Amino acid sequence: MTPEAARTADRSDGAGDGDARGGDNDGAPAPAPTGPGRVTVRGLTLGLGGGRRGGPASVEVVRDLDLDVAPGELVCLLGPSGCGKSSLLSALAGFLQASRGTIEVDGRRVTGPEPELGMVFQQTSLLPWRSIEENVAFGLKMRGAPARERRAAARDFLALVGLRGFERHYPAQLSGGMQQRAEIARALINQPRVIFMDEPFAALDAQTRFMMQELLLGVWERVGTTVVFVTHDIDEALFLGDRIFVMTSRPGRIREAIAVPFARPRSLELTTAAPFVALKRHCLDLVREETLRSIAAAAPAAAERVVSPGGRQAPPEAEPPSPPASRRGWTASPSA
Ligand SMILES: Nc1ncnc2c1ncn2[C@@H]1O[C@H](COP(=O)(O)OP(=O)(O)OP(=O)(O)O)[C@@H](O)[C@H]1O
Ligand SMILES: [Mg+2]
User: Fold this and answer.
1) Most CB atoms closer than 10 Å: which of 73, 290, 305, 330?
2) What is the domain-level CATH number for residue 103?
3) Distance, CA 144 to ligand 2 centroid (Å)?
């Protein structure tokens, strides 16, 4: 399966053709639908923990969240640490069960992980004992594709992400950026309707990160898959996204949907242009406000110390209360 074939593959079952807007996030228009990959979330509530005696009580991470992503759209999720971005992404990809509400991709309920919902994490999940080619071809192997077909497809997708010549290497023999490129190829080979990416470039140095962003845009423009991308980096969100969803503090909802008006292809110069800087400032203000809100919710006294009566804000003395969640050992709380 070549990248072009992936784009044009017939996946007509259930791809709706209505307006992608709706819910509480329709402040910005979604682009016209072009193919499969529509994500529709209604009234989503996610609870975590509370499964073990003596463990932490159940936490409502996301509450009544509505979200619409149009086919082929690249959207970024921004929000304060601990607001539920990773939890939301895990639920969208089928790894985490909803307590309430629905998630649909092309009109079909998401009830568990599936190859058509690709996921790329910050840390590599490549199998260290398999070659890069075997890692990338793994999804096809699971689906019983013949060896020759698997190898040809893996090579095509490795070439697409600039890893031609590294097929026989093992993950430990690649740099962090190269491993993330292999992760993207591994997700793409399954012809995903949507790829969910959770801070995939956060561990990379600035230069490599920018190259990865450009690479992702190039691949996305060729393959046309919907991408939902979580980041803390506002520049990254503005550089990549068609739209940015800014989440509230926990329990997370969509506070604002922002259409990114910059034409593509986007260049490095854009990041210092006045309209870019103005939009960045707006995003920064929203995230800051929500971060202060989450501090206030957890420790009102500490929040009072960081926000003086005159409204001037001093640097926080207390650490934000929500440590990054471990991606392992999640337990969904019982359905409501
Ligand atoms: N297994 C768990 N049990 C209970 N609470 C959890 C569990 N995993 C995560 N949480 C809590 O859920 C909330 C949301 O976590 P999540 O990882 O989704 O946030 P995030 O927005 O991705 O944060 P960050 O930006 O730091 O990555 C956090 O407050 C976290 O403490
Ligand atoms: Mg996270």
Assistant:
1) 73
2) 3.40.50.300
3) 33
